[in-house]
Amino acid sequence: MRQPWRIAVVGGGISGLAAAVRLRDLTPADTEITIFEQSGMLGGKLRTGELAGSPVEFGAESFLMRDPAGADSAAVALARRLGLGDALVHPTVGQAALVVDGALRPVPGGTLVGVPGDLGQVTAVAQPATDADRDAGRPLLAPGEDVSVGALVRSRFGDEICERLVDPMLGGVYAGRADTLSLNATMPALSRTARTAHTLTGAVRAAQAAAPRPTGAPVFATVDGGLSRLVAAAAQAAGATIRLNTAVRELSATRDGWQLTVGPTPAAQTVTADAVVLALPARHAARLLAGLDPASAATVGELDYASVALITLVLPEPQLPKLSGFLVPADQGLTIKASTFFTTKWGHLRRPDGLALVRASVGRYGEEASLQVSDAELAALAHREISQVVGAPLPTPVATHVQRWGGALPQYTPGHLERVAAVRAALRPAYPTLAVVGAAYDGVGIPVCVRSGETGAEEIIKALEESGS
């Protein structure tokens, strides 16, 4: 057996870091792990900055506490593994609102990503179609069928439920539209129950019953001090060689492993490895896969992304409603699609000087024109539209920050999971020591990305062990 193993992790976002930690935990101590990251920092969309002396998330804000079976989510388990369990904090204000006809209306309870299990609970926000969700004597979906979330919701509940509830909820997570996002990929629990339930309300209730949450248990968590603490702790625990500002330009299989071409073209280097984890956005991964399996590369490269901008305002003692924030349906005439009142939602961020942190997001899939303005214009837009929603002019910000995430959020159209399964089924037999992981394949939430990276690491370890390398 040749030792030590040399394993390359291409991509230093949370999926790649989670893969590296799992590799370190499950391989011999002398295993050489190298993380190649094209940008100048690790963490991908997990990025904590500072504004007016407070830590502020410039990317992802939090993660789910539980997995679908009710156990700790992969993100929580990773945080505990990294010694950050005591640093986990939870929202102190959980109620959010929807902007409907110029007013803030509480997000109704009893929904699953906005899809109601009881139509009577949502009438303050949207009116369901009369008698649309009838039992036709057969399941909503056939085995293996995938549809857009919007198609299913509109057919059972009508347009208002889709446009005023489901679309803004999905838009807050994916920056996409319900009419184009895959049910199987974005709402797997509902997808499963829709194959046996005869009504959509019944499918929602069945999905909720399959993953009960103890009364009062927190749904979300973040890390006190910022999610970049999770990034730094993962990098340290992985014990990997970190190569920042280093793009991997080519990937080729050799008789006994892999060859990577890295660095700028005029001074490219060749690196060899026994196994490779590709934790990259789809188009970058497709470029590296093209020489291995052109058909799989083409499938991966078809995945499209939405771009967003996150605008953070530091406001002196604003008069804000006691809400965690609000979501904006696309038909409400606003450019912002959501806002989070950070220092209201998260008690640990509240400041004795009364300064409040408020964040707005701009950018829906297909509406990239809204981002084609300066940072100053985006900050002014956010200030103006949040003032309009809360019904009073906000104070002049003492500091602002605009974080642009170009091509950040994958758009999972119907059939996405089947396409991913086909890619992995094609690659795995031919290249068992190669794993493709991350949001391009398995989902955008931090727990899903963590688990994707960990699963990829476990698969290549198994392949290395079986090969006797």
Describe the protein:
- The chain is of the alpha+beta class.
- It has 15 helices and 22 strands.
- It has helices at 14-26, 74-81, 149-157, 159-174, 183-186, 188-193, 200-210, 228-238, 282-289, 294-301, 342-345, 375-390, 416-430, 439-442, 446-467, and strands at residues 6-10, 32-36, 48-51, 54-57, 63-64, 88-89, 96-100, 103-106, 111-112, 115-116, 220-223, 241-243, 248-254, 257-262, 269-273, 275-278, 304-316, 325-327, 336-341, 355-362, 399-411, 434-436.
- It has a seven-stranded mixed β-sheet with strand order 8-7-18-19-20-17-21.
- Strand 14 and strand 15 (269-273) form a beta hairpin.
- The longest helix has 22 residues, at 446-467.
- The radius of gyration is 23 Å and the shape is globular.
- The model has no long low-confidence stretch (mean pLDDT 95).
Secondary structure elements and pairings:
Blueprint: E1 6-10, H1 14-26, E2 32-36, E3 48-51, E4 54-57, E5 63-64, H2 74-81, E6 88-89, E7 96-100, E8 103-106, E9 111-112, E10 115-116, H3 149-157, H4 159-174, H5 183-186, H6 188-193, H7 200-210, E11 220-223, H8 228-238, E12 241-243, E13 248-254, E14 257-262, E15 269-273, E16 275-278, H9 282-289, H10 294-301, E17 304-316, E18 325-327, E19 336-341, H11 342-345, E20 355-362, H12 375-390, E21 399-411, H13 416-430, E22 434-436, H14 439-442, H15 446-467
Parallel strand pairs: 1-2, 1-16, 2-12, 7-18, 16-22
Antiparallel strand pairs: 3-4, 5-11, 6-11, 7-8, 9-10, 13-14, 14-15, 17-20, 17-21, 18-19, 19-20
Helix pairs in contact: 1-8, 1-15, 2-15, 3-4, 9-10, 10-13
Helix content: 25-40%
Low-confidence stretches: none
Mean pLDDT: 95
Distance between the termini: 5 Å
Q: What sort of overall outline do the alpha carbons produce when their principal axes are compared? A: globular
Count of distinct strands: 22
Q: How do the strands of the widest beta sheet line up side by side?
A: 8-7-18-19-20-17-21
